[in-house]
Structure prediction request, 222 residues.
Amino acid sequence: MRVLIVEDNAELARQVKSTLEHEMYVVDIASDGEEGLFMGETEPYDAIILDLGLPKLDGLSILQKWRSAGSEVPVLILTSRDTWREKVTGLRAGADDYLPKPFEFEELLARLEALIRRASGHASPFLACCNVILDTNSARVTMDGNLIDLTALEYRTLEYLMQHPDKVVSKTELTEHIYDQDFDRDSNVIEVLINRLRGKLKSDLIKTRRGLGYQIRGASDR
Ligand code: CA
Prediction:
């Protein structure tokens, strides 16, 4: 899952990024409002963490612009004070959740996971397909109860496919959700990744739809 952090406090942004990366997310940072607005408009994020107090353009204005442009990306706002007014204004502007500063990283993670789950229509943190179960909380994958050792990229690829069961996902779409903006994207890498995943999962769980992309069929919540 690919996440954007719009936060002008560089140290906080760095800490959140490293916490998320530890949980297998891929993360971009925007350090002011204009950059945040632009990145949110142009890149297909799975969720956005948006600070309200930002230089150049404030968080609420950004959120309103995204929503009026039709974006449905899940947004978690960070409020500097736990005031009911900021909270209500943020939720009215189209935020999906909010978190007052200072916060515990654990809580941020839990809220972000819940947000992404809701947005993709899954109620449970466990995604299951055949004998493979992916736990989005712990970022672990088991097959017949045995832990499968996956690299971060392999995990992100499998998670994205399992979050979108039955959908044919193109190489471009996969690339956009498993790499950050600085990565030199090469869609041939996706083929290699998929083949490695197939080897590790010892199954034909991931189907190739020639010329279109990849598909996992019949994944469900556990
Ligand atoms: Ca700020």
